[in-house]
Design a protein that fits this description.
heterodimer, A: Cytochrome-c3 Hydrogenase, chain B, B: alpha/beta, Beta Polymerase, domain 2, two-stranded parallel ribbon, 4 helices
């Protein structure tokens, strides 16, 4: 019977002692994915993540659209981090076309990217809070997030799906008086998120639920190829904004946070520290930005690459390194476009972390991976 | 194409091709030289760009090259595995983007290792000749990426412990969807 099954499908033997649980895809605690957990009593003995419930074929769609019309749909995998998900694509297309971006546009991009990183992390923090049963941590980030959404709305005109980055710069210049408004809101935002420590990160209940659960060692974090906050929580100092600075990150002072513990607590604290760092980067960028100038190189209609060529560009998104591999054959559409996203890369750590954990610890470990199912599926 | 509608100062696009004949980046060149020194004409250096080195290997050599890349050059994880379908060559290319966390001198670098599998006109994923050796025993991080390439392109990775589907539904019975002959309806 098993021999006749085509490759790709498998039948599992059932052990009487082991119970198999399907967490998701309808269960809210798993996001838009299914996690098949096998439990022995209260302990997880095996875990098999099953993503793909929100697979939309972004990579296939990209092969049918030209480099400009690809922009709005490529940000769909993570709409609340839309600037960062477009960033490597835009950088890649610029390299294919050989365009140099104006200085001011680079700063605007950095500001948008950092604002978006905070918007994403606040959304994630709200979800993390509610799945640990901490309702305040759902309400506060969801509310304070509006401060930054408001700024992005001023910049791009859209609250969530900005589609603001284009090959050659950004779509529009900043609105008048933006610098003052941005500085004011970001300063207030920073003051607000510092208050989260007292209610959430120093909360003994959170600490007892997350400390020493799902420990990922430094060696395993490297071997599994994890990225972003998961990697930095395990003591590996790797942030592309420092290591491979793109646009103007080399002119800014970036200190990405690193923790050594590798447990759920560290993984949940790193994004919060990231936000504090983002606030500093935004202030620096506002200060150093040229006060006027062009923000966009106008492209010819239907831009196309020069013959068979490929680029791989990566940026640091809210969930870690986000790579974009574009293969061009000299036509107006990309021949192949591949997004290598942080969520998909971190997913491989889930079976490792859950093995031997109590079932009740599953939400704190799973959501600490900074995982966004829609992005992983693309 | 014929008329430049809104071109910016032409100086910058022109400056790029002019920079090309100039020396290849030295550090990247040293990486590709090490690979060539070890494998000779078994490998082909596809490109040497800033922070990116492209190496092409035949499918029977790719496992050895990857092993050397890990043990001899200190790369330690795979960031991305993408398949690219070339129907006119009757081949499917699989591209590994390999990076390093533990060696700080390689932090910027990505080694692009590509290899090509035979492409079948009428694919039977897993049962036809579209096969490549899996790199999972060398780079653990390719596990999910190779599963994705298998379901999306039909490239079976021999030696991969778990070749199940990942993103596609279990009852998908059409062509592997990222192949060029799978067309989106209405397009």
């Amino acid at each position: 019977m098993t021999a006749e099954l085509p490759p790709g499908l498998a039948i599992q033997k059932v052990d009487e002692r082991i119970m198999t649980l399907n967490v998701g895809p309808q269960h809210p605690g798993s996001g838009h994915m299914r996690i098949v957990v096998q439990i022995d009593g209260d302990y997880i003995v095996a875990c098999d993540p099953d993503p793909g419930y929100v697979h939309r074929g972004e990579e296939k769609m990209a092969e049918y659209r030209n480099y400009i019309t690809n922009i709005p749909h490529l940000e769909r995998p993570v709409i609340h981090d839309s600037c960062n998900v477009l960033y490597p694509y835009v950088l890649g297309v610029e390299e294919l076309l050989g365009i140099e971006v104006p200085e001011r546009a680079k700063y605007v991009r950095v500001i948008c990217s950092e604002l978006n990183r905070c918007i994403y992390i606040m959304y994630w923090l709200a979800i993390y809070g509610i799945f640990l049963g901490h309702s305040t941590m759902f309400m506060w980030p969801a509310g304070d997030r509006e401060l930054l959404i408001d700024l992005m709305e001023k910049i791009s005109g859209a609250r969530v799906t900005h589609a603001h980055f284009v090959p050659g710069g950004v779509r529009n210049d900043l609105p008048p008086n933006f610098e003052e408004v941005c500085l004011r809101q970001v300063n207030y935002f920073e003051k607000r998120i510092k208050e989260y420590a007292a209610v959430f990160y120093d909360n003994p209940i959170l600490i007892s639920r997350t400390q020493d659960t799902g420990v990922l060692s430094r060696e395993d974090a490297i071997r599994l190829g994890t990225t972003g906050s998961v990697l930095r929580a395990s003591g590996v100092n790797y942030d592309l904004r420092q290591k491979e600075p793109y646009d103007v990150y080399d002119e800014l002072d970036v200190h990405s946070p690193v923790m050594k513990e590798g447990d759920s607590y560290a993984r949940s604290k790193i994004p919060w520290l990231d936000m504090l760092e983002s606030c500093k980067i935004i202030r620096q960028a506002l200060e150093k930005m040229p006060k006027s100038g062009s923000v966009r190189v106008k492209l010819k209609p239907n831009p196309k690459g020069k013959g068979l060529d490929s680029v791989y560009k990566r940026v640091e998104s809210g969930r870690g390194s986000l790579g974009c591999h574009i293969v061009s054959d000299g036509k107006v559409e990309p021949y192949r476009l591949k997004l290598s996203v942080g969520s998909f890369r971190n997913l491989i750590a889930l079976p490792y972390l859950l093995k031997g954990e109590k079932l009740g610890n599953m939400p704190s470990v799973y959501w600490s991976l900074n995982y966004w199912p829609v992005e992983a599926d693309r | 194409m014929s008329s430049d509608t809104e071109t910016k100062p032409a100086a910058k696009p022109v400056a790029k091709p002019a920079a090309k004949p100039v020396e290849l980046p030295a550090f990247e060149k040293s990486i590709s030289d090490k690979v060539v020194e070890k494998f000779g004409d078994k490998v082909e250096v596809e490109f040497v760009k800033e922070n990116r080195v492209g190496i092409k290997a035949k499918r029977e050599d790719v496992h050895d090259v990857a092993e050397f890349v890990r043990d001899g050059l200190n790369y330690d994880h795979v960031e991305s595995v993408s398949g690219v379908d070339y129907p006119q060559d009757k081949e499917i290319e699989v591209v590994y983007h390999i990076g390093s966390y533990s060696d700080s001198s390689l932090a910027k670098q990505i080694l692009v290792l590509s290899t090509r599998a035979q492409r079948e006109e009428n694919p039977l994923p897993g049962k036809d000749a579209t096969k490549l050796p899996s790199l999972r025993d060398i780079f653990y991080s390719v596990e999910f990426h190779e599963r994705e390439v298998f379901e999306m392109f039909g490239v079976y990775f021999t030696g991969h412990p778990d070749n199940r589907r990942l993103l596609l539904p279990e009852d998908w019975a059409d062509l592997p969807p990222l192949r060029k002959d799978f067309a989106i309806k209405g397009r």
